[in-house]
Specification:
heterodimer; A: 804 residues; alpha+beta; Aldehyde Oxidoreductase, domain 4; 3 domains; five-stranded mixed sheet; B: 157 residues; DNA polymerase, domain 1
């Protein structure tokens, strides 16, 4: 062999981190080949449909399903009477899937049909006769909380068989409430009375946040099938498959091990699929009774009526500061419209209080809140989880306080902004914190300080178009969230004899790109191209446990878990290679599909060749590792003190608008964002998350509103519920602050929810900068803005309700 | 139960006959009768564009078209663009530019974009934005979709 032929091959270092990596599922999706739940049909499948209430609040006097049952093609018709083993569902276990004796909102489920076709099922619904006795409707939380208000959940329905529809001993849905309060939270640090006494300036305002909903492009649906032994297979859009497995087992009174959940690709989540909703349990009942697979899909109208919403909030904020710009105290009261039942929306104060207590340094803070039952749609979790509402008030007050003391709003924020190393009054510990960098970067890139002055000076000049610029910042969990006893995620990693990796992760892909980011992290460790990996992430019978896709946690938690598994695999491989080539493991590394010498990059052996050798020697699965990652955060105490996340994400957004004072129309022209994301992993993916979040925030600020009048939804369609369309999007300039979190996977923190949080608050500040008029109520529709500009919106006062 | 009607039309280049309910829309025919599921149901009332197809070379919402009106027409769905140069370029651009997240709106977007590019009506980003005004996307904020279409149409960005 000549010298030239023996020439060694060097593999140069390369990285996948921070690159623009194509989303792995994008080619299938762009070809129309991806099979969403809507596209899956099982042989023998029936179609399920639900009869919803025709009244808002009423007693159900009788239900006659005989004509529906007699219709040709109808297999099963059920009402509460037919499922005596129904158990109460939801976050507070306060309603039955099929309502018993009483309906409390427009969406309420009364009966369900499984039939040969959707058309037959719909025809059957029309044949069901329900006799109601109307009750007074409570359509706003201010009325609901008044003493003597009619009660939404007055009686124990079904306790000890007291209700005709329930078996003896059945768990009761709801013990009944002496008032309409569904949930309360109280938080305090420091002493707000003393804080107020030390203040040079004190302001108080009441803000009103509205109903919006997720509007996932793919409507809700599921398919349920029981096998011959009674094991349940579900095709579900859930964001929390493992929690749901346990919960469905409870509702069916079976062992969770008998439930398997497969998650087909999902047409949007945004938090809408964190709770179990009545239709899912009803679909199980239909399948159980029919002994056939049952598929249930919503229509778009049903999606509006029966999906969760973001929670409407009435928020009174009292804040103060000293002349030198030091914040002194913050006192907050919120009243949440819970709707008729309790879902995750009721717990959003848990997140809101983090913003109140810890976005800025506030020495004294207290917060009291109540979520109250009304006959409105019930609110769930939605990207940002209360933080949009909290930030809307806080960041307007930051501008207002700055104005009062004559300080530049940026300088005022910088003075009170958190730093790395800080432990807040609530006990949150900021290990990495790029907040000040976010503030200065967003301000510089948007030329904020100059434009603020310029716009103000131009306010009174002639012309109907006024320009405005406004800023808002946010703090959100970025390293998981200790909401459940565990916040972990499991990973199984398998390597075959061609050096291809199968990554089996508990983390669900919901369009956000987690499967691509996890692949990147694994391939980075193992020195492989992305093309070498296959991800399995959608089947509870295969994947290890994960708490679910929520709280911007997947990249951080599942990412660390995947890295852990990859590191174990790498250690095994290097141990084998070191033995084979008689060197130390530390002398070797993996790069470009080869085992290389760590110091020089010189190729030692092709990885696939090494693995094949292993195969023939051991006759075992080549390399298989498992790993579980639980972030180093602890549960908060009963007063909500302590850390809730291993890392926190920060961001500042500057919004620029043009306000037409003749029409009240607000055009969002530009959004400049600076986000502390720890580190950029997939640049393409993270840009997409931010841009999408900004435009979702734009909809929240300007166009979207579910109009509920006396409990009736007025606009359950895309014609009247206005989503932002392409021509309306602002120019977007997004900067990333890389604070390199010590706990984060490759330094990264969560980002999923962050970009939607600040937009409405910054828009309010921008409108004020343009016109001098402050807006306390969302959304900023032309009508609302026009009225405000013409002094026709009286300032709102609300005497906060206080818990006894 | 209801009246059926036999129609014949060209679907993705292949002639076919199908018997459809007279009240059925083209979307339901494509998905439920013929079994092509690339065309998506988003709203059923022409507001979201997820069900966009092309009929005689023009894009439209298949949920607003009666199935029987496909009779004698030339219908193209996302599946029918599998070997089309423009559509290939669009698919690649959507992937390359990160224009796909949950992907539910994507087939409709590409059907619309394909029609826009082929009819040379997207010379700048404003006309691209207007062109996809009838296609809703909840994930991406549209920017990367506009970028992807611009990359194929050669529009100034």
């Amino acid at each position: 062999m000549s010298v030239a032929e023996k020439k060694t091959r060097i593999i140069e270092p390369d990285t996948l981190i921070g690159k623009r990596i194509r989303k792995m599922d994008a080619p299938e999706k762009a070809s129309g080949k991806t099979r969403y739940i809507h596209d899956i049909n099982l042989s023998g499948q029936l179609h399920g449909k639900i009869l919803r209430s025709e009244r808002i609040h009423a007693l159900i006097k009788s239900i006659d399903v005989s004509a529906a049952r007699a219709l040709s093609g109808v297999h099963v018709v059920i009402t509460a009477v037919d499922v005596p083993d129904q158990r109460p569902i939801g976050v507070a276990r306060d309603h039955f899937p099929l309502k018993v004796g009483r309906v409390r909102s427009e969406r309420d489920e009364i009966a369900a049909v499984a039939a040969e076709t959707e058309e037959i099922a719909e025809a059957a619904l029309k044949l069901i006769k329900v006799v109601y006795e109307d009750l007074p409707v409570i359509s706003n939380p201010e009325d609901a909380i008044k003493p003597g208000a009619a009660l939404i959940h007055p009686e124990p329905h079904g306790a000890d068989g007291s209700h005709e529809h329930l078996k003896q001993g059945t768990t009761i849905a709801h013990k009944g409430k002496p008032d309409n309060v569904a949930m309360t939270f109280d938080y305090a640090h420091g002493d707000v009375v003393q804080g107020e006494a030390e203040s040079d300036v004190v302001i108080e305002d009441t803000f009103r946040l509205h109903y919006v909903t997720h509007c996932c492009m793919g409507v809700s649906g599921m398919i349920a099938e029981f096998d011959a032994s009674g094991n349940l297979l579900m095709y579900s859009n859930t964001q929390v498959p493992f929690l749901h497995k346990r919960e469905f087992a409870e509702y069916l009174n079976i062992d969770p091990a008998r439930i398997r959940i497969i998650q087909p690709p999902i047409g949007g989540g945004f938090g809408s699929k964190l709770d179990i909703y009545p239709f899912e349990v009803i679909c199980l009942y239909l399948a159980r009774t029919a002994k056939r697979p049952v598929k249930m899909l919503f229509t778009r109208e049903e999606e509006f009526l029966a999906s969760p919403t973001r929670q409407p909030v009435l928020l009174t904020l009292r804040s103060g500061c000293k002349k030198d710009g030091t914040l002194t105290f913050r006192q907050v009261h919120t009243l949440h419209d819970n709707g008729a039942y309790t879902s995750w929306g009721a717990t959003t104060p848990f997140v809101m209080m983090q913003t109140f207590s810890s976005l800025y340094r506030v020495p004294n803070c207290d917060y009291h809140t109540a979520a109250v039952y009304t006959n409105n749609p019930y609110a769930g979790s939605f990207r940002g989880y209360g933080n949009l509402q909290a930030t809307f008030a806080i960041e307007q007050h930051m501008d207002m306080l700055a104005e009062k003391i004559g300080m530049d709003p940026l300088e005022f924020r910088m003075k009170n902004a958190q730093d790395a190393g800080e432990i807040t009054g609530q006990g949150m510990s900021f290990k990495s914190c790029g907040f000040k960098d976010c503030l200065t970067t967003a301000a510089q890139r948007s030329d904020y300080s100059r434009k603020v002055q310029e716009n103000k000076a131009n306010r009174d000049k002639p012309g109907n178009i006024k320009r405005g610029i406004g800023m808002a910042s946010m703090l959100h969990v970025g390293g998981g969230a200790k909401i459940y006893p565990s916040d972990g995620c499991g990973t199984i990693l398998k390597m075959d004899d061609f050096a291809n990796v199968t990554l089996i992760t508990g983390a669900s892909e919901i369009g956000q790109g987690s499967e691509t980011v996890l692949s990147q992290l694994v391939c980075e460790e193992l020195g492989l191209p992305i093309s070498a990996i296959t991800v399995v992430n959608n089947d509870t019978a295969i994947t290890p446990w994960d708490v679910g896709v929520h709280a911007s946690r997947t990249t951080f938690i599942a990412g660390n878990s995947a890295i852990g598994a990859a590191k174990k695999a790498k250690a095994k491989i290097l141990a084998v290679a070191a033995k084979k080539f008689e060197c130390a493991e530390s002398d070797l590394d993996l790069r470009g599909g080869f085992v290389i010498k760590a110091a020089s990059g010189e190729v030692v052996i092709e990885l696939s060749k090494l693995l094949r050798n292993l195969h023939f020697q051991d006759k075992a699965e080549l390399v298989m590792t498992t790993f579980y990652y639980e972030p180093p955060s602890v549960h908060q105490d009963k007063g909500f003190k302590g850390d809730v996340s291993a890392a926190y994400a920060w961001g500042t957004q500057v919004v620029e608008v043009e306000v037409d004072t003749d029409t009240g129309r607000v055009r969002m022209t530009r959004v400049t964002g600076a986000h502390d994301v720890g580190r950029v992993l997939n640049r393409l993916g993270i840009e997409g998350q931010i841009e999408g979040g900004v435009v979702m925030g734009q909809g929240y600020a300007l166009t979207e509103e579910l109009l509920i009048e006396n409990g009736v939804m007025q606009n359950p369609n895309f014609r009247d519920y206005k989503l932002v369309t392409a021509p309306e999007i602002p120019e977007m300039d997004i900067a990333f602050i890389e604070s390199m979190d010590g706990e984060g996977p490759q330094g990264a923190k969560g980002v999923g929810e962050a970009p939607a949080i600040c937009v409405a608050a910054a828009t309010a500040n921008a409108i004020c900068n343009a016109t001098g008029v402050r807006m306390f109520e969302l959304p900023f529709t032309p009508e609302k803005v026009y009225r405000a500009l013409h002094g026709q919106t009286p300032k709102r006062y609300w005497t906060p309700w206080k818990a006894e | 139960m209801s009246l059926k009607h036999d129609i014949e039309f060209t679907l993705n280049g292949i002639k076919r006959q199908v018997s459809v309910d007279v009240t059925m829309n083209a979307l339901a025919m494509l998905r439920d009768v013929i079994g092509l599921t690339g065309t998506k149901y988003g709203c059923g009332e022409g507001e979201c564009g997820a069900c966009t197809i092309q009929v005689d070379g023009v894009s439209l919402n298949s949920c607003l078209m009666f199935a029987v009106d496909c009779d004698g027409r030339n219908v193209t769905t996302i599946e029918g663009l599998a070997n089309d140069t423009t559509a290939d370029a669009l698919r690649d651009a959507f992937v390359e530019h990160g224009a796909v997240q949950c992907g539910f709106c994507t087939p409709g977007m590409i059907m619309q974009a394909d029609h826009m590019v082929k009819s040379e009506c997207c010379n700048d980003t404003d006309s691209i934005k207007r062109g996809i005004e009838g296609n809703l996307c909840r994930c991406t904020g549209y920017k990367k979709i506009v970028d992807a279409i611009a990359a194929v149409s050669g529009a100034q960005t």
